[in-house]
Amino acid sequence: MGRFLLAALVLLLCGCASQQRSTESGKAETARESALPEKWNDITYEGGDGSSIEKAVVIKGTVKPEVLVQSESEWMSRVYPGWRKQGQALLNPNDKYYDRIEIETRDGRKIDVYFDITGYMVGFQKLLGE
Question: What backbone torsions phi and psi does residue 42 show, to the nearest 5 degrees?
Fold first, then answer.
């Protein structure tokens, strides 16, 4: 279980260190997408719109913290162009794992975006041999 908690800590630290801002230009975003390393090509987004735990965005396809953090940022850049990260929390209700990312939208609204990262956490735990 210690390694599992370490994985959660690594995820939070990576998320806090990546105070990403999206680009305002579709042209710049397209260029950035084409520059993504191939490891990000297997990421899929499922689930809801991220407005609540019940409607969390499900990220699938990675057990690497840096890829998960970048995937969350990429999703928010597409949905909330010009967003800025305000805070982050790892939630664990009902044996599932969620990233709650507090953002400020380009128009100044403050909202929480939820990502279901249970698959990531379980995969990372298996990778560590727990």
Answer: -90, 0
Q: What is the distance, to the nearest Å, from the Cα of residue 120 to the centroid of all Cα atoms in its chain?
A: 10
Q: Nearest-CA neighbor of 116 among 71, 66, 78, 80?
A: 71
**Domain segments of the chain as ranges:** 2-127
Residues sharing a CB contact under 8 Å with residue 5, sequence separation 6 or more, in sequence order: none
Ramachandran angles phi, psi of 110, nearest 5°:
-105, 120
- Which residues are 81's β-sheet partners? none
Sheet of 98-104, strand order: 44-47, 57-60, 110-116, 98-104, 84-91
Taking the C-alpha atoms of residue 115 and residue 104, their distance in angstroms, rounded to an integer, is 17
pLDDT in tens, 27-68: 444 434 444 443 456 788 899 999 999 999 998 888 788 888
